[in-house]
Amino acid sequence: MTRWLVTGASGMLGRDLTGVLRAAGEGPATTALGRKELDITDRSQVLDAVAGHDVVVNAAAWTDVDGAECDEAGAQAVNATAVRHLATACARHGARLPHVSTDYVFPGDGTVPWSETAAPDPVNAYGRSKLAGERAVRELLPAHGYTVRTAWLYGAHGANFVATMLRLAASREELDVVDDQTGQPTWSGALAARLVALGQSALAGDAPSGIYHGTATGRATWCTLAREAFVLAGLDPERIRAVCSERYPRPAPRPAWSVLGHEGWTRAGMAPLAPWRSMLASAFAEGVFPAARADGRPG
Question: What per-residue confidence (pLDDT) applies to 260?
Fold first, then answer.
C-alpha cells in the first residue's frame, strides 16, 4: 500500500487531495497535515513527518499575493525554504514529491501559452518565492521531484473567485469584473485528482520528473469566468460588467497573460486537464457551488 503525506491539508486543495485519496481507498495510508499539525518551515519537523511515506504532495503555501509584497521574507520562508526542507526530506527517505507551484513564475507579457520549458521571470514577490521553491525541488530531487504549476483555482473549500462572485450576487445587482487578465480557471478537485494520478505514475516509473502544467485547457478572463459561473448558477450574466485592471490597483502586479501550455503531460502518458468551461460545469454538477433560487439569487 502506498503511504501518502499531504501537506497543507486544511486548505482548499489539500482538503480535495485527502478526499480523492479516501475515494481511491488510500485513506488509511494517508497522513493529512495542516498548518497546526506541521510547521513546514521547521526543518526537523519536516524530516520527521516525511519519514515512512512514499509520496509527499505539497499543497502548503503562502498564497497571499499582496501580502508577499509587504513581507517577501515571510513568503520566501514558506514557498522556498520550507520547500527545500521537504525536498531534502524526500531525498533522504526516498519519497516522490509532487509540489504545487504557480503561473506567477512567468512575467505575463506573452501572447502564446507558456511552455514548461519557457524561462521564468516573475513580476512580484509571490512569484519570486514560488520560483525559488521550484528550483529547490529541481536541485535536490532531480529524479523524484514533480513541480505542477497551477492557476486561478476555485473549489468547495475556502475563499475563491467563483464563490465570491456568487456571494456578491446576492447583494449587488451589477458587478464590475476585470476583463484584461487572461488565464485558465481550474477546479481544485480536478487538480487534486491529477496530482494523485501523477504520484501513482511516479511510483510506477511512468512519469518523468520535472515540470508539469496543472491547469484547465482553453483561456478566459476574470469577466468571462464570472459570466459563465452566473450562467451555471441560473443567474443573468449581463449583471457582470467588464472593466480594466486599473479600476482595482493592487500592491502586487498581476500577470496579464497566464495561459500555460500542457505538452509535458505526454511524457507521463496523460492527457491535459479538461477545458475550463466543462470543468466549471462539472464543479457545479458535483454541488461545489449552488444553483440559483427561484428569486434569481444564489442558493
Answer: 98
Per-residue model confidence (pLDDT) at position 293:
46
Task: State residue 297's pLDDT score.
Answer: 56
Q: How many CA atoms lie within 13 A of 234 on its CB side?
A: 14
| CA atoms within a 13 Å half-sphere pointing along the CA-CB vector of 298 | 23
Q: Global pTM? A: 0.96
The SS3 call for residue 42 is: coil
Superfamily of domain 4-160+184-218+260-275: NAD(P)-binding Rossmann-like Domain (3.40.50.720)
Question: Which regions of the chain are under pLDDT 50?
Answer: 293-296
| Domain residue ranges of the chain, discontinuous segments joined by + | 4-160+184-218+260-275
Contacts of 243 (CB under 8 A, 6+ apart): 176, 177, 178, 179, 223
- Catalytic (active-site) positions: 126
